[in-house]
Amino acid sequence: MEKQISFSELEFRSKRKRTQKEVFFERMEKLVPLREWCEIILPYYYEDGNGRPPVRLEIMVKMYLVSQWYNLSDPQTEDMLNENLAARGYVGISGNAPDETTLCKFRGLLEKNGLNKAIFESFNTRLVEKKIMIREGTIVDATIIDAPESRKNKHSQKTPEMASTRKSNSHRYGMKAHIGVDSETGLVHSMAATAANVTDVEMAGAVVHGEESKVHGDAGFTGIERRVEIREKFQDGSGETEWLTNNHKNPPHLVCKLKEGVEFTINKKRGSVTTEEEKEQEKAKSRVRIKVEWAFAVIKHRFGFRKTRYRNLAKNENKLYMLFTLANVFRCSQMKLSTI
């Protein structure tokens, strides 16, 4: 049965100029594979039985997406759906929005069963099958996401599982999001979350898939080709090994031989670049590598995730999987794709 349209919704639809939210929700309605995501969640969703019937899954998924796009808390999301007609039209509700407790429990269900990661991997598989994601080259990078340093809590301590580090001569406290991005399209294919004091190169093995012919990175990935986890991803298959060392402080160790055709293009540290020719070479590397910054710009500035919302690293990692999935959707919209 088709729902009855209220006078306010009718007037809202008939006005001449559409708002930015209307345009955004319309684009996302076309590009988000909602049915596929609902199929991933459905086996874990609540069954209709005794008590109040569960909210329709499609409504809960869209409500959750709204909270991610605008970095809203559960109460803020409920308020937005009760007062913003563009958001109400996208989610598909005519009466009161599901309350904040319902959204909180739904988010907990996704976190408990690792469903955001499953959605991230499913969407990337879809991009590969449709030949949108090329997978011939990867750009690796990491960004720091700040966490509150306040000790005004029942434990009288900072956020657990976070750590301090220094970046650009400034103190930073929080976590790191490590990603691998397709060098052709700028789409994120791999993600890992750690405390902020974990170096970029330590997590390089987690954000490459092993099928690349080129790997690009900044100076934080110096020595990436000598790391054991990278050699295991790109081994030549002969079973032969060789002695290598990561740096002068560590003793040599046996690692797999690197397969032919793999090229690691890593920026040099600023102090080691002296000649004009070297400067031009570094600029050429950076022109390729700049695509990775787009994904960080989307989640931090477009979606507003500049500071951790949860005290637990696993919860923040779960949120990041969904944010980078939505960043890929947003990237596809900028590539002028009508559907995915």
SSE pattern, N- to C-terminal: HHHHHHHHEEEEEHEEEHHH
Strand content: 15-25%
Count of strand segments: 8
Domain tally: 2
Give me the number of helical elements.
Answer: 12
CA-based shape: globular
Uncertain runs: none
Specify the biggest β-sheet.
6 strands, mixed
The helix fraction, in percent, is: 40-55%
CA distance, first residue to last residue: 29 Å
Q: Estimate the mean pLDDT confidence.
A: 88
Structural class: alpha/beta
* Radius of gyration computed on alpha carbons: 23 Å
Task: Characterise this structure.
The model has no long low-confidence stretch (mean pLDDT 88). The relative contact order is 0.13. A hairpin with a 2-residue loop joins strand 2 (163-167) and strand 3. Helices cover 41% and strands 15% of the residues. It has helices at residues 7-14, 20-31, 34-41, 57-69, 74-83, 85-91, 100-112, 115-129, 228-233, 276-289, 291-302, 313-334, and strands spanning 137-146, 163-167, 170-182, 188-195, 214-217, 241-244, 253-256, 263-266. Helix 4 (57-69) crosses helix 5. By secondary structure, the protein is an alpha/beta fold. It has two domains: 7-113, no CATH class; 133-312. Strands 1, 2, 3, 4, 5 and 8 form a six-stranded mixed sheet that branches. It contains twelve helices and eight strands.
Give the tags:
single chain; 340 residues; alpha/beta; six-stranded mixed beta sheet; two-stranded antiparallel sheet; 12 helices; 41% helix
Spell out the blueprint of helices and strands:
Elements (H helix, E strand, L loop, with lengths): L6 H8 L5 H12 L2 H8 L15 H13 L4 H10 L1 H7 L8 H13 L2 H15 L7 E10 L16 E5 L2 E13 L5 E8 L18 E4 L10 H6 L7 E4 L8 E4 L6 E4 L9 H14 L1 H12 L10 H22 L6
Parallel strand pairs: 1-5, 5-8
Antiparallel strand pairs: 1-3, 2-3, 3-4, 6-7
Helix pairs in contact: 3-4, 4-5, 5-6, 5-7, 8-12
